[in-house]
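tl;dr need the bound structure. longer version: we got a ligand (pyridoxal-5'-phosphate) that a collaborator sent over and nobodys looked at where it sits. i said id run it. heres the input, straight from their email, havent touched it
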Amino acid sequence: MTKRIYADHSATTPLKKEVLDAMMLYLTENFGNASSIYHEGRECKKAIENARVQVAKAIGATEKEIYFTGSGSESDNWAIKGAAYALSGKGNHIISTVVEHHAVLHTLKALEKEGFDVTYLPVDEYGMVSAEDVKNAITDKTILITVMFANNEIGTVMPIAEIGKVAKEAGVLFHTDAVQAIGMEEINVEEMNIDMLSLTAHKFYGPKGAGALYIRKGVKIKRLIEGGAQERNQRAGTENVAAIVGLGKAIEMATADIPAKKEKLSRLRDAYIKKVMEKIPFARLNGHPTMRMASNANISFEFIEGESLLLMLDMKGISASSGSACTSGSLDPSHVLLAIGLPHEIAHGSLRVTFGDSNTMEDAEYIADSLVEIVERLRMMSPLYEDAVKSGRVK
Ligand SMILES: *Cc1c(COP(=O)(O)O)cnc(C)c1O
C-alpha cells in the first residue's frame, strides 16, 4: 500500500497522542458523573474545571466565560439563536457575511423564518469583508454581528479586531466562529472586543464531538438545551468528561507556539503553491494572498472537475478536499467560491489542500508533482479543454 498523505486538516485533524493519553483516565478509572459529590464525581469535576482554565488561557478569557458544548456547530447555533432570542425585545436585525460556515448560515436562515432580518455582507475577490461595511450596515435594530475569524474553504483571515471595535462602539454584540483559527492565529477576546467565540476540538488535534462557546461576562443569551444544571445552568446534559479533558489538552498544545507553527506551515504551503502555479497553466489561487491561514491553499483549475481530481489524488495516497467537507457529495459549487466571483465551471474545478503538523516539505512537493500529472491527464480527457484548444485560448 502506498503511504498516505493527509492534507485535509481544515476538515478534521488526527488526535494527538498526548491528548489521548490525557483522556484515557476519564474513559476508564475516572468514569464518574461530574455532578456527583463523592470521589469519582469530584475527580471529573476537577478535570472539567482544569480544561476550562486551559481554554480560557488560550483565548485571553477567564474560566467563568467558557461553556462546553458538543461541537462547533452547536456553539454557533447557541451563540446566534441564544443572542437573537434574548435580545428580540431590542431589535431583530443581524449582520453576517455570505461566506460563513453552514453552521452559521443555516442558523441565520432559520431565524429569518422566525421574523429576524439578516444582512449578509458581500466579500471582496479575496473573501475579505470590510469593517467599514459592517459599520454602515448597523441600524438601531441591530442586535448581533457574526463574522467568522478565518474561512474554512479559502483560508482568508477576517479583520476581526477592526470589526470588534466597530461592534463595541455601536454597542452591538459580536460573535465570531473561530473554529478554523484556534492554534493558527493569535486570539485575544479582550483586545479584539469579541463577545462570543465558537471553537471545536477536532480542528486542533482534539477529539470529535467536543466544542466550547466563550460568552463574555455580563452577556446574557438564552440557553438552547434544557434539563440539568450543568455548565452553570446554561447547557444541560451529563458532561463528556474525557472529550472535555481532550479539548483542554489539545488547545493548550495548539496555542503553545503559534508563530513557530505558522512559520512551518506557511513554508510548506508556499512551496506547494509556487510549484503548482508555475507548472500548471489556467490555475487560480483563491483567498487572500497574505491575510490567509498558514495551512490553506485553495486553487482552481480550469477545464476539470474537482471530484475527479480528488479521486485521482486519493489513488496516489493523497487526502484533500474539493471545498468544505460538509458540502462535498453535493453538486452545488461552493457558496464561498461563488461569493468571491468565480464562475460555476471554475468553482467546480477547485482543490483545497490544508497542511498540518504531520506534513513535511516532501509531502508538499509530492502533492504538487502529483497534481501536475493529474491535471494534465484530466485536461486531455476534458471536452471543455478541447473546446479551448479549438478556439485558440489554449496554445
Ligand atoms: C468545522 C467547522 C464548523 C463545525 O464544527 P463541528 O465541530 O464539526 O460541528 C463550524 N465552523 C467552521 C468554520 C468550521 O470549519
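gonna send this back to them w/ a short note. The chain has 14 helices and twelve strands.
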